[in-house]
Amino acid sequence: MVGNTPMVELKSLAPAPGIRLFAKLEAQNPTGSIKDRIVLRILQAAKKSGELEPGQRIVEASTGNTGVALALFGRLMGHPVDVCVPDSVYPEIEQLLQVYGARIRRVPRQAGIKTAREVAQVVATNEGAYYLGQFDSLENVAAHYETTGAEILADVPGVEVLVAGMGTGGTLTGVGRRLKEANPACHVFGVEPRLGVHVQGLHSIQDGFIPPVFDESVIDGKIIVGNRHAFAHARRAMLEEGIFGGISSGAVLHAALRAASRLTRGNIVMIFADGGWKYLGTDLWNQEDHDPAIEKHEDPLDDILWW
Known about the structure:
- The chain is built from nine helices and eleven strands.
- The protein is of the alpha/beta class.
- It has two domains: 7-28 and 144-306, Rossmann fold (3-Layer(aba) Sandwich); 35-131, Rossmann fold, CATH 3.40.50.
- The strands form two sheets. The protein has a seven-stranded mixed sheet with strand order 1-2-10-7-8-9-11.
- Helix 1 crosses helix 2, helix 1 (35-49) packs across helix 5 (138-155) and helix 5 (138-155) crosses helix 6 (170-182).
- It is globular.
């Protein structure tokens, strides 16, 4: 039910004959994102250890996908769920949270995920709830090391480059470790939004909050992406490959093409963390705003930063 998502080759987007682009489509998970993997893993481990008691309320901070996954799996396991979200969260995300029966606790937009996380911790302490702790849990990393990473190697045995979004850091850390064990020469790139720019599903460690689960030693560099390139490349994936990816997937595609510009050959694996249907209310699919020139234009503020 969770995991074993498709790996597809994006042949029309490959920038050179010797370069192959692959995308792992995490939107095929039950709630439509990669976060199903970590939420299910953390909950199962907590129930097994006794940390999560029968019927106990669960609380977590999220900007979207983790909250949605928790709302569903928590409900299926018999737990009420509270999700602390910045009030800038997309309406579709709130609707999904409500459909799955979660209680929404809002924090001011400018406070961001760091404050939402602090609020969730206070709620857990004061109300006796179980705090999921996606930013802190080693089960987050283990889920990606044992499942996502293993699946990638089964589908693409020789991976020269991995490109994935920077969120909690769990995907980059877990998958990156697994791929580097198989090929120490594999380069791992994290994708971040520019400081002060909101790209749904991505987090900038430049804002001062470094998730505890994130192991910087696994990463070879990060690629900074702006909103317009994220939107343009999400549309490009849809129009040229028929892949209905989310905003962060567009950012990852743009970043992968930037990384590919430095290669002559090799396999590049991208992780498309969710689907575009969650963002139908945004300008992402507004064709009137679609300028094909953006996709080929290099933004001087987009850059590859090597560790």
